[in-house]
Amino acid sequence: WRLGDQPTLRIGVLEGDPAYEFYEIAGAWRLSDGRIAIAERGASEIRLYDSHGKHLGSTGKKGGGPGEFGSITSLSATPEDTMVVLDSRNRRVSYFDPIGTLKRSVPLHFLAEMGGFPTHAAPFDDGTLLIVVRTYFGPSGLGTGLTRDEIVYVRCDADGALMDTLVVRPGTEMYSAVHGENRMGGVRPFGLSSQYATHLDGFFHGSGDRCEIEDFSKEGGLRRSLRRPVANMEVTDADVEGYKRERIENAEDDMQRQINAALVEAIPFPESFPAYRSLVVDAEGNLWVGVSRKPGDEQPRWTVFDRTGGMLGEVRTPAGFSVFQIGEDFVLGRWADEFEVQHVLMLSLIHI
User: For residue range 161-214, what is the model confidence (pLDDT) as tens digits?
Assistant: First the structure.
């Protein structure tokens, strides 16, 4: 494949009609009739647009009542165009019909006991749900030094009741240190972070430490592992020094500059970058693997594999473009312009 040179659809403005202004796009989905649903986290709305990008209406607002959102985290849809919206703050999944009317909301009560933060909800073909949960810092809490949290895949029924914990895997590498009375830390620079992609009969998971991705059924059974004998890119001294310099120079004041300087000297930088940056499954069931990039490399590249692990080709997407959905002949995602204003773009996907 390749992508068309110009977007076939662009939704978003720097300023103007609020229906076209976006603060934080959490997801976008093209429905079967060509309409576009966009989850706007900043406004706590699901907005609907026609196939030409004209605003048709919005639903939702900030709050905890029916049809309201605390924090929209993901948007997906069933083949029948029922929209599935995860509200991580209110810990529930809401279902909307194709015109944006709330059908029902289901609370995820099991999270109170499990803990963690739900990051994604996706429907399986039998009506059950996959919920992806990050248990930040693990059960023991944030320690000092290098830690890695967990990512937990659970399956729920359509009413949000826990059916099974499917898979538990390492999540994101974190680092913490103490400097005087201050605790410092965050995500490990160039560190490992698990990636996942869902489809109607299962999901993919990759821990990023090597070029290997696991394919699981919706019951949690491992169907296959996709592997390539490719070494991860080396983290060089120049990469480390560039990160340290940027972290110190971007501090807001002298105090923060001192803290950042102490932190970057305490961080144990990894020897190599993660094997990949992101995973997406297209409408035909192929797996798109976002290739890992060096600092300063703004060109997203994807390697595409079929379900057996056979390599189908490579695709480039625009700089600043995050992919939400890949159809048979389009790619839909979020794009930030030179002013960091967010837009939803659709690009044609051309078979060559």
Answer: 999 999 999 999 988 877 666 677 788 999 999 999 999 999 999 999 999 999
**Phi-psi region for residue 313, left (φ > 0), alpha (ψ -120 to 50) or beta?**
left
Report the alpha-carbon distance of residue 222 to residue 218 in Å, rounded: 10
Q: Count Cβ atoms within 10 A of the Cβ of residue 185 and give its class: 0-12 exposed, 13-18 middle, 19 or more buried.
A: buried
268 C-beta neighbours (distance < 10 Å), count: 11
Q: Which two tokens stand for residue 177?
A: 């240190």
CA-based diameter of the chain, in Å?
60
Q: Residue 51 and residue 342: Cα distance in Å, rounded?
A: 19
CA distances from 170 to 67, 153, 167, 197 (A): 34, 11, 10, 16
Q: How far apart are CA 40 and CA 60, in angstroms?
A: 10
Q: How far apart are CA 233 and CA 292, in angstroms?
A: 8
With beta carbons less than 8 A apart as the criterion, state whether 316 and 301 touch.
Answer: yes
CA 80 to chain centre: 23
Cα separation, 252 vs 127, in Å, equals 48
The residues pairing with 176 across neighbouring beta strands, listed in sequence order, are: 145, 185
Helix (H, G, I), strand (E, B) or coil at 138: coil
- Alpha-carbon distance of 280 to 334, in angstroms, equals 14
Which is higher by pLDDT, 181 or 291? 291
